[in-house]
Structures are given as C-alpha cells and as structure tokens.
Design a protein that fits this description.
Blueprint (H helix, E strand, L loop, with lengths): L1 E5 L11 H15 L3 E7 L6 H4 L2 E4 L2 E6 L3 E6 L2 H4 L6 E2 L2 E2 L3 H18 L6 E5 H4 L1 H6 L13 E6 L7 E3 L19 E2 L2 E3 H8 L2 E4 L2 H6 L10 H6 L4 E3 L29 H11 L10 E5 L8 H12 L4 E5 L4 H13 L4 E4 L4 H10 L2 E4 L9 H7 L3 E5 L2 H6 L6 E3 L4 H15 L2 H12 L5 H16 L2
Parallel strand pairs: 1-2, 1-8, 2-5, 8-9, 9-13, 13-14, 15-16, 15-18, 16-17, 18-19, 19-20
Antiparallel strand pairs: 3-4, 4-5, 6-7, 10-12, 11-12
Helix pairs in contact: 1-18, 10-13, 11-12, 11-16
Length: 462
C-alpha cells in the first residue's frame, strides 16, 4: 500500500527525542516489507544540503533519500523553520508554533497533489502533525483527490498536546463550530492533539499497556474521556529497537564484544566501566547502571528518597544523564558521601551510554510512567538485567522471567527490589541463566512494522 509518514523530527536529519528514532526506522522496515512510503518533514536550519545530498523539487520543496528509495520531502519556509531549535529556545516554546505546524500540515497535504502521490494511509505522529486528520475530514473533504485517504495517529507521550489560546483558533482556517468540547476545545484552549484523536481513523500509542493507561484519569492528562469514547479504535504497538546500533557482538564503543552464546567477556566490560568511573574493580558485587533524563517522571523522586539507603548496600551505581537541577544537587551530595559506591555523569555521552549498557549487571529504570521506553530493551540485548516499575512499555517488556519488577510506586518497594536483585546476582548459576534469557528477547522493528501494517488495514476498512 501507499503510505505518507508525517513527523516533526526524523533520524538521521533532526532529533530531540524518541519520536525521531521511530520516524526514521519504521519507514525503512516498511519499505523492506514491500510497502511504498514517503515522508514529509519541516526543513529546519539543521538540515544542510552537503550532508544529506538534498535535491530541489520546487521553490519551497526539496527532498532526500533514505533506505533504498524512501523519499523524504522537506517543507521549506524560512520564516517558520530557519531557526536553531525545532520547537523553542532557552526562553521556552516558540510563540508561533501553531502557525508553524498549521503550515506544515497544510503544505504536506498539498504536496501530495503536486507529486501525484495518493496514499492509502497518512501516518501522523504527535500533536505537530495531528491537524492532518482534522483537515482531511473538513477543509479537504470535498476534493476527490483526498477521498478515501485514511489516517493513523501515533501518540508518543500524551503529556504533550499542543495547547494554544482560544483567540488563535482562526489561524487553523476551521469553522468556529469545531471549537467545542467534542472537537478541538479543551478548557477554553485549542488542543491540537485532541483534534487529531477525534478525527483520525485509528489512534495508537507506543505500547499496549500505555494505550490502556491513557484511558484512565491518572495517565490521560485530561483526554481520557475522548480515548474511552473511541476505545475500539485505540491500540498499542511497541516501538522496535535498532539492533544494528545496539548489539554487543558488533558494538565498537564497548571494551570487549560478547554474545549470548559466549557472554563471559561481559565481565571485561564491567571492569572497563569501573575503571572509567573511578570505582573499585570488584567482580563480586552488582553494578547498577542508569542512563536517563533526571526527572520525576523517570523515577528520580523515589530514587532520591532512597538513594542514601541504596548506597549503604554492597553494590555500585553509575548514573548518566541531565535533568532537573534538584536531582543534580541531591546526587552530587551523595557522590561526596559515597565516592567509592556511586559515579555521576551529568551530561549526554553516547560512548559512555554504550559502556553502561554493556558493563552494568543491572539496569535501573524506575519510571513513574513510560509510554514505551528503549533503555530496558537495550539493556536486555546486552544481558544487563532491567529493574523497572510496572508501567507502560516497561510492563510489556520486562517480567520476573527476564528482570525485576515492582508494582507499587514508592521508595520502600524500590529498595526492596534493589535488595532482591542484589541477592539474585550472588547466585552465579541462576544469574547466568537470567542473562541468557534476557539476551534472547527480541524487540526488532520488523515485528512492530507488521503490527502497523495491520493497523493500516484496519484504518482502510473504516
């Protein structure tokens, strides 16, 4: 079938988060499965011609290729996109983000006619592209070219909705009759994601558990009512993992390569990580690793509460990431107290991230909520056993068979589970079997892509 994928960031061109990884990886796998797919992406300042071999199509459209022949069309408008940031700067979100992504949505739809590409499905991601389903069923509904095009909306994190003041509604070019609680109005504001959820043929999130969680008051961020009303059209598809990047057999960034068949060399990666982090070289105690944004959502509230008790256990802890200043300060103080136990790296460092995944024994990921999560999938591939809170994609990928799970979100349960994992580590025979089980898990993109094809077929039949 013919597919247009619309996302506001796509690897390898621009990235601020996991959305870009999905939007860059999924089309390549779909192409490999025989689907015909193109991508529409804003042409940001960071997307430079020499690096990406960009060709000119028209005055305001250029394109590049990824995969064998997946065309990525760039929507150009210097007024809107020729800026250093994608969504904002140090002062916060850009004030004209509604204008910017309204333009992107309209221009992406008009482009289809210009290149005579009529997709069966338009797959849109997050609020930045969520106006496309709205426009198809309103402004474009009487144009024969757009008849029978169906839409799938993927929500990567429902906390980001594209909220704007009511007086900006006319910028959308829609009739005021759509500014009501059944459509785009949300507590006297314009809510773009809500509009997409109302008008898209199928709505999905990035894990099955998260698709259920967001239909509850606790996780729905005010949109649980719309989702519950449409629950027969709401699905979860777990994000895949790119095993060409995350593979301990071929990873050039780690000290020693190893495999599920021969995992013994992993101990040399542990030694390398301990050396780099200035920790004592101890094989007999468990080394816990964290690669994360330091924020409450990622579990740092309960980790901060229990960190001193954890550091008094017979273990080591390496933390990599940046985030909220209060956690920088709390963890900084703990390092001064326990310099032989905890190593803190307040930065983004891709090489060190790979070394943590390979060299740790246990990967700590106690997120309060996690739509999908890739850290636990990566750690499983590297035989580093994940310890997680039972939520979202963590609940869908980690269980007692391949990791450690706690299901009550508080410091006591976290500490209890850290103790349990530490005890388990001391049993070499059982731990070896656990590593084998972990490394045997498969979260490849092909599995996820086939599920998306099923969703596209559902949308087509509506």
């Amino acid at each position: 079938m013919k597919i247009l994928l619309c996302a506001s960031e796509v690897v390898p061109f621009v990235k601020t988060g996991g959305l870009a990884d999905v939007a860059g990886a999924l089309p390549l796998v779909l192409e490999g499965l025989g689907e015909e797919i193109i991508i529409a992406l804003p042409r940001y300042k960071a997307i430079q011609e020499p690096k990406f071999k960009i060709q000119r199509l028209s005055a305001d459209i250029s394109f590049s290729l990824i995969g064998r022949k997946v065309k990525v069309y760039f929507i150009e408008n210097d007024q809107y996109f020729n800026r250093d940031g994608l969504y904002g700067d140090k002062n916060g979100d850009y004030q004209d983000n509604l204008d910017r992504f309204t333009y992107y949505a309209r221009r992406s739809l008009d482009l289809l006619k210009e290149i005579n590409f009529k997709p069966d499905i338009i797959h849109v991601h997050d609020w930045q592209a969520a106006l496309i389903p709205v426009y198809l069923k309103t402004l474009y509904r009487n144009d024969k070219f757009y008849k029978d095009i169906r839409t799938v909306l993927t929500i990567h994190n429902i906390g980001y909705q594209g909220l704007f003041p009511q007086d900006e509604f006319p910028k959308l070019g829609l009739d005021w009759s759509l500014f009501n609680m059944e459509n785009l109005e949300f507590y006297n504001q314009v809510n773009i994601l809500k509009g997409g959820m109302v008008f898209a043929d199928i709505v999905n999130t990035v894990s099955t558990t998260y698709s259920k969680e967001i239909q509850t008051q606790e996780f729905g961020f005010g949109l649980e009512g719309i989702l519950s009303k449409r629950k027969s059209d709401v699905f979860g598809v777990l994000n895949g993992l790119d095993y060409t990047i995350w593979n301990p057999e071929t990873d050039k960034l780690i000290a020693k390569n190893y495999s599920a068949a021969n995992p013994k060399a992993k101990s040399l990666d542990k030694e390398d990580l301990q050396k780099i982090c200035g920790l004592p070289i101890k094989k007999e105690i468990p080394l816990f690793g964290i690669v994360s944004r330091l924020a409450e959502q990622k579990g740092f509230d309960i980790l901060a509460e229990g960190i001193e008790r954890i550091c008094k256990m017979d273990l080591q802890l390496v933390i990599l990431g940046t985030g909220d200043l209060k956690y920088h300060l709390i963890l900084g103080d703990i390092v001064k107290k326990f310099p032989q136990v905890i190593s803190l790296h307040l930065k983004f460092d891709d090489t060190l991230a790979h070394k943590i995944y390979a060299g740790s024994d246990i990967f700590l990921m106690p997120s309060k909520y996690e739509p999908c999560g890739l850290g636990q999938m990566i750690s499983l591939r590297y035989g580093t056993i994940p310890l997680v809170f039972k939520t979202g994609g963590l609940a869908d990928t980690v269980d007692e068979g391949n990791g450690f799970v706690f299901d009550q979100y508080n410091q006591e349960e976290l500490i209890k589970t850290v103790k349990k994992a530490s005890r388990a580590f001391k049993n070499a025979n059982k731990w070896s079997k656990l590593i084998q089980k972990a490394m045997g898990c498969n979260f490849s993109w092909e599995t996820s892509a086939r599920k998306y094809i099923q969703l596209y077929e559902k949308a087509k039949s509506k």
